[in-house]
Amino acid sequence: MPLSIERAVFARTEFRKTTPAVDAAVKTRDSLAQELTFASLLYEEADANILRDQILALRKINRNDWALAVRADSKYSGLEIGSTITLFYPRFNLGSGKNFIVKKIAKTQSSEQLLLTLFGPQ
Questions:
Q1: Which of 2, 18, 71, 95 lies in the 20 to 30 Å Cα band around 106?
Q2: Integer distance in angstroms from the first to the last C-alpha of the chain?
Q3: Which residues, 6+ apart, have CB-to-CB distance to 76 below 8 Å?
Q4: What is the reported pTM?
Q5: Is 118 buried (19+), middle (13-18) or exposed (0-12) by CB count in 10 A?
Q6: How far apart are CA 87 and CA 37, in angstroms?
Q7: DSSP assignment of 31-72, as one string?
């Protein structure tokens, strides 16, 4: 059975659909913002649109990595990567508290402190 040109092109195309999302506010705020491409194995376009919107919502807000040290006592023993914590601080607009995701937990050499890397605010 001979292979048609259309079928060969279809078979060689790794990704068959794209669902672009553009937010002009991000380009205005950050002129160096780059276009991101995410490949997935999702078959339905509606599912890909949901994933696209979730990624855009996560990345379009100003979020940074925050590093802080806390005492390594039982108060913080339940912390795990991916946990959400609320951080209160009188500066950086954190007076009323903001939620952060724990990204990294490291112990100091003296084991008296935990070094936390947080992602947020959410």
A1: 95
A2: 57
A3: 70, 114
A4: 0.53
A5: buried
A6: 32
A7: TT-----------SHHHHHHHHHHHHHHHSS--EEEEEEEE-
For the chain, give the percent of residues with pLDDT over 70.
94
- Residue 52: partners with Cβ closer than 8 Å, 6 or more residues away: 19, 21, 38
75: helix, coil or strand?
helix
How confident is the model over 30-84, as pLDDT tens digits? 777 777 777 777 778 888 889 888 888 877 777 778 888 888 776 777 788 888 8
Answer whether 100's CB lies under 8 Å from 87's CB. Answer: yes
d(C-alpha 56, C-alpha 47), whole Å: 14
55-to-24, 45, 51, 69 alpha-carbon distances in Å: 16, 15, 6, 29
What is Dmax (Cα atoms) for the chain?
A: 73
